[in-house]
From TrEMBL:
One Pfam family, short name: Zn_ribbon_DZR_6
Protein name, entry field: Zinc-ribbon domain-containing protein
Domain Zinc-ribbon positions: 4-95
Length: 362
């Protein structure tokens, strides 16, 4: 994630902040500019962003629950920001601890939406007859995806329960953001791959998704991954079915671009080809190899730092060449679609196009 500064005093601020700790200015995230902005009251008791080209804004209605700091333009009467408007079901706020759980889920979801915005990927519009993303945050449900609806079990917001599940399933990593990235991968498979010219290459890389999904998962749960799974997959679970391989690969791709972006924004780069005059933008990188050249030394350094503090590895995975080839496929699709949509929007397109561009060269 990019680095943010208070537009009033210049102090460092963070994505979830609602006040600047130095000057006390109220803060909010302005999605149309992908930045945090300090706010000031106007003579007529409204709010205005501080800085160049000030805007009249108001907070999302969910700010009253302490779960959202996103801003909306004056005149937008929907009440909910672009991210909160994706919620179909939220926790019962009368239940003990539900608001804190919802806040954790919202933070993870908004980090996902931020990344999708940076990539110019569709998420809140119908694409080729397929609905946009929606979210259910509920107790006792199974975390998963179906037809654009991502469901997350509220227990995943409990650190103790999440760690218990991580150990039960012998996972090296488990987080709310990881869940959402993975489940969003299932959605984008339907948008970017299913019934497109890319399905044949997908099957060459990931396998034939037409094999019975439930049978494949049952077999995985009973027997575990193949003994040589480390040579082909980003994780053991990725070996269970081609759809899960894609979703895991997608999630790791989002892990990588966001972590590299955050490191670069904070002046941390270990790449041999670094250009001090221009910060590397992992979200719009043309070459996948350039991204990995930054990612590998970064993870080695951060894993060593984590161990020096007595913690588990920052990134407890080793990506084999076969997994990197799959990730490069994801990268090519994402970059091509994002750039095409960015060009269309710059020319006045506002999302009416339902069919994605031809990506036959990727």
């Amino acid at each position: 994630m990019q680095k943010f500064n208070c537009s009033n005093c210049g102090h460092i601020v963070y994505f979830q902040n609602v006040h600047c700790v130095r000057c006390g200015s109220p803060l909010g995230f302005l999605p149309e500019r992908l930045t945090m902005s300090a706010l000031q009251p106007t003579p007529d008791n409204e709010l205005e962003t501080i800085g160049e080209q000030p805007l009249r804004v108001h907070y999302c209605s969910n700010s009253q629950h302490g779960v959202c700091n996103w801003l909306m333009r004056r005149g937008d009467l929907s009440g909910l920001c672009r991210a909160c408007d994706l919620n179909r079901t939220i926790p019962n706020l009368s239940d003990n601890g539900s608001t804190a759980a919802w806040a954790a889920l919202e933070d993870a979801k908004k980090r996902l939406i931020y990344a999708l915005m940076r990539l110019s990927l569709p998420f809140d519009e119908e694409i080729d007859g397929k609905p946009g993303l929606k979210f259910d945050f509920v107790s006792g449900a199974m975390t998963g995806h179906a037809d654009g609806l991502i469901t997350v079990n509220l227990a995943e917001a409990d650190a103790v329960e999440r760690e218990r599940a991580r150990q039960l399933f012998a996972e090296p990593y488990r987080s709310l953001l990881g869940h959402l990235r993975h489940e969003s991968g299932h959605y984008y498979w339907t948008i970017l791959v299913d019934r497109t010219p890319h399905i044949d290459k997908f099957r060459r890389l990931f396998g034939d998704e037409r094999i019975d999904y439930e049978c494949a998962l049952s077999q995985y749960r009973a027997a575990g991954p193949p003994t040589d799974w480390q040579s082909s997959y980003v994780s053991a679970y990725a070996s269970s079915h081609p759809w899960e391989d894609w979703a895991e690969t997608w999630a790791h791709y989002l892990h990588i671009i966001d972590a590299v972006d955050t490191a670069e924004a904070n002046g941390i780069t270990l790449a041999n080809d670094q250009d001090s005059a221009n910060r590397f933008d992992s979200y719009s990188a043309e070459a996948f190899d350039a991204l990995i050249e930054r990612w590998v030394p970064l993870t080695l350094a951060l894993n060593s730092l984590s161990r020096s503090m007595g913690h588990q590895d920052f990134y407890p995975f080793v990506n084999p060449s076969a997994a990197l080839e799959k990730m490069a496929f994801v990268h090519g699709l994402v970059q091509a679609v994002g750039k095409e949509r960015a060009v269309r929007r710059a020319s006045g397109w506002h999302g009416e196009q339902k069919v994605l561009p031809n990506l036959s060269n990727h």
